[in-house]
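**User:** Everyone, produce a chain:

**Assistant:**
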Amino acid sequence: MRIMSIENVKPGMTVAKTVFGASCQNLLNAGTVLSEEYITRLKDLEVSSLYILDDNFGDIDIDDIVCDQTRLEAGNFVKDVMEHMKLGKGFDPGQAKRIINSVIEELLSSKELLVKLVDIRSISDYTYFHSVNVAVLSGIIGIGLGYSHLRMQELMIGSLFHDIGKTMLCDQVSCEPSSIEGEPSGDMKKHPLLGFEILKRNKNLSILSAHVAFQHHERYDGTGYPRKLAGPEIHEYAKIVAITNTYDLLTTD
């Protein structure tokens, strides 16, 4: 199999791995033969790439960094939390920790993390899975830095909820991943502080996870927001998430 941009797939090609949608639903099963109608629908749903069977690649198989079940559970959980926050409800930190612990276990059991980074791109690029992608990428860096399980948990919970402050903004598009082009304007710059306030109120979460939401748009040279922190003023977790957030946006077609 090989991964292909949705712009390059053709009718008659066979889907090699199940394609999932923004709401965690199954869009196309592995083994489905693509038609023009299927391809058009996938484009409409903003699926950027998918795995295609290719005889030239023989029996090469690409394992997921995180299994579909865990990834879907995480995506659904983020979606539920975002929707509950808009209604003024809270969320269960115990469930967040359980999901993150599952992701950590799968990352630690993987032997080829760098080779398989692309695997987390096989889900269409929407808000909830953007958050999951950022958490997975941050976890990979945490492993590389030799983080303890506790530090991995703090980092990855913060990264999973780095944009939770957007749920407090009125605009319907507020929960979409940020653009890397230019500075946001108006209320959008408030979402790091709003996210910090949401997470710090939950006494069962580390304050360091809350600071990930607060600082993930700060920049090393002091040009970020909301407080224009610079260099060592920015927590290491937030520096990691600033990188993984940008990476995920850059690799979103």
Notes: Residues 68-250 form a domain with the Hypothetical protein af1432 fold (CATH 1.10.3210.10). The first helix runs from residue 36 to 44. The chain has two domains: 2-57, 68-250. Residues 118-125 have pLDDT under 50 and may be disordered.
